[in-house]
Structures are given as C-alpha cells and as structure tokens.
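User: Quick sanity check before I run a bigger batch. Here is a single chain. Can you write out its predicted 3D structure?
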Amino acid sequence: PLRGRSLVAVARSGHVNRGRLRLKSSKHAELVSVGALRAEPGWHNAGYIFPDGFVSRVSFRSSVALDQLTVHECRVVGAGGEHWPAPTFTVTAADRPDEPLVAKSCTGCWSAVLRRINAVIQARIAEGEDLPPPPKTAIAGPEYFGFCQPEVAAAIEALDPARAVCTEYWAGKAEREAVAAAVMAGLPPPAFSRPLAMAARM
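Assistant: Done. Predicted structure follows.
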C-alpha cells in the first residue's frame, strides 16, 4: 500500500552522500515494475541505476484538489521516449492522466510537479481564495521515484548480479560503503579521486 506521510518536499540543503542525496523525509513509493538494464551512457551513474521500463507509484499533493493526495506514477522510458537514446523520465498524476510531466531526470519531473502545484495555488490566490503562498521547496527526484528505498535498490541491483553493466554505480556504492564503515569505526572518511555530486541531481 502507498504511504504518503508528508506534503513537505526535501529541502535544497539536502546534501550529497557519495552520489546520493541525504534524505530528510519519509516518502514511500510502490514498485510496480523493475524494468531492464541498459549499458548506454545516462542509464546509470554513481548514485543510481535507471532501468528501462521502471515503474513506481507514490502519493503526493494533488494539483486539482490541493488539500488531498493523489497517486503519481513514475516511469523510466526507453525507445520512443523524448530523450532517447538517453532515458526519459515521466510522472503522471492520477487526477491529470492526460498531462504527463516529462524530463531528462527524476528531479526534472518532480520539480515540474511542484511548479504545477504552485501555479495552481498562485492562480487561486489571484482569484481571491484565502490560501497560504506556495512553499519554497526543492525536491529530490530519485527519492520520489523510489530509487532510495532499500527494497527498490535491491531489486534493481539484482538485475546486474555480476556487477558488469553498471560499473560507475558499483564504484559509487563501494565508496559509500567505505565512508559508512569509516564513520562506524570512528575514523575519518577516505578521500576519493572523482566527485560524485552530479548523481544527486538526477
């Protein structure tokens, strides 16, 4: 079942943890289809793997009924997508099924979700409704797609059991694990030669 616990998006101060955002909320997505691996550029990075055909669903604030949640379906589209041969990311709200939001990244999609909600709020305020102003928030797209959830990450990782396809991702995971082990041991985190911050903006 979907568990929409909060309407508050991740703050822009969410920081990078070796290719991943450090989470500040508890959004939970339902995995519908894990999809299939692609080895071409753009289909994985140091923080995440984006399987072709991945589908998840998550509850988030409606832009139709602002005081309610609605299910948003998140997809990673391959051939036929707007950004092919790179992945195309889409988010479609259940109450606006004919108006999918399309972007080059997870965060691009979810930023568009926020912009659409904020535009509705602004329009209703302009019409005289007594509503609070739109929240000034940013959003972590990978979290709302479900890519940060351990069970979703495990299902995706199982697509590459030999760790031979998504090599940048596995290197990033090894670095995250090394940092975590150092922290647990009370040691300074190891230094790495390549920055992984770009992954967090996906």
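The radius of gyration is 18 Å.

User: Great, the batch can go ahead then.
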